[in-house]
Amino acid sequence: MVRNYIRKTDRQRWSSETMERAVAAVVSGVMGCKKASIQFQLPQTTLERYVKKRRTDPNSVIDKTAGKYHCVLLKSKR
Known about the structure:
mainly alpha; Arc Repressor Mutant, subunit A; extended
């Protein structure tokens, strides 16, 4: 097992709260997707995807855990 893992990419470094504020700003018309992605330091394509979801379903939730891989091991209690 690696003792000192150094992350090599910046994937999913954004928080759900930041994404929520950026989506709200775009949907309300305060700013566009590109400006919001720069201001909130978010990936533009990810922001566009969440804005599209919010416009089709106003009750959609931003969930970072949804993806290809899921943890199948249980967390041990120490």
